[in-house]
Design brief:
The chain is α+β, with helices and mostly antiparallel strands. The protein is built from six helices and four strands, in the order αααββββααα.
C-alpha cells in the first residue's frame, strides 16, 4: 500500500481518536481500487464500528435555548459562514426557476453581500462587516453606521453588530452625561 494512503488513514484515525482504524485497514487496497462491496471496510458501510466525534461547533450547547444553528453559534460565540447580511438580516431565499414550458426546478436566491469597512464616528474606529448592497444603501441613507445602528432593531442585527450598537449607545450616553 502506498505510504500516502497509510499516512492519510493515520491522520483520519487521529482525528477520530481511534488508533485501531489505521491498523485495521493498513493491509487493504486503496479505496479507489475496491472491486466489490465485500472488499469495502466497515467504515464505508451503514454499520460502522468506528464512532465519529464531531467538533464542538457542530453540537448544540442546549436544546432548550438554541433552536437553530445560528442561535447556538451566537451563544457559543462561533462565526458561521452563512450568507446573511450583518445589518439588515437579509438571507438566502428559495424559489423556482420556471422554464418556457412551465417546468419548475428549485433554486436559491442569494443576497448581494459585500465585505465592507465602515467607519464609526462616535467610536473613532473602522469595522469590517459583511453587508448586502441594500444594507449599504440604507447605512448611507440614514447618515452613517452610528445612525443606522441606533435606529435598527436588535432582532435583525448579527451578534457583532449588536455589540457595536451597545458600545455606540454607551458612548452617546456618556457624552450626554458629560455635557
Amino acid at each position: 500500500m502506498p505510504f500516502a494512503v497509510v499516512m492519510s488513514l493515520t491522520i483520519v484515525a487521529e482525528r477520530l481518536e481511534s488508533v485501531t482504524f489505521a491498523t485495521k485497514f493498513a493491509d487493504r487496497k486503496p479505496f479507489g481500487a475496491l472491486s466489490s462491496p465485500r472488499d469495502r471496510p466497515e467504515s464505508l458501510t451503514a454499520r460502522s464500528s468506528v464512532t465519529k466525534r464531531w467538533p464542538n461547533f457542530f453540537q448544540y450547547p442546549c436544546r432548550d435555548d438554541c433552536r437553530t444553528r445560528r442561535a447556538a453559534a451566537e451563544k457559543k460565540d462561533v462565526c458561521l459562514m452563512s450568507r446573511v447580511c450583518e445589518l439588515t438580516g437579509k438571507a438566502v431565499m428559495t424559489g423556482n426557476t420556471v422554464s418556457h414550458a412551465n417546468n419548475k426546478s428549485r433554486r436559491r436566491y442569494l443576497p448581494n453581500l459585500l465585505n465592507v469597512t465602515l467607519m464609526s464616528d462616535v467610536l473613532g474606529q473602522s469595522f469590517k462587516l459583511r453587508v448586502s448592497a441594500n444594507g449599504l444603501r440604507s447605512v448611507e441613507h440614514r447618515g452613517g453606521l452610528d445612525a443606522f445602528l441606533v435606529k435598527a432593531s436588535a432582532d435583525e442585527l448579527s451578534l457583532r453588530a449588536r455589540i457595536l450598537k451597545r458600545k455606540i449607545a454607551q458612548k452617546i450616553e456618556a457624552a450626554a452625561v458629560a455635557a
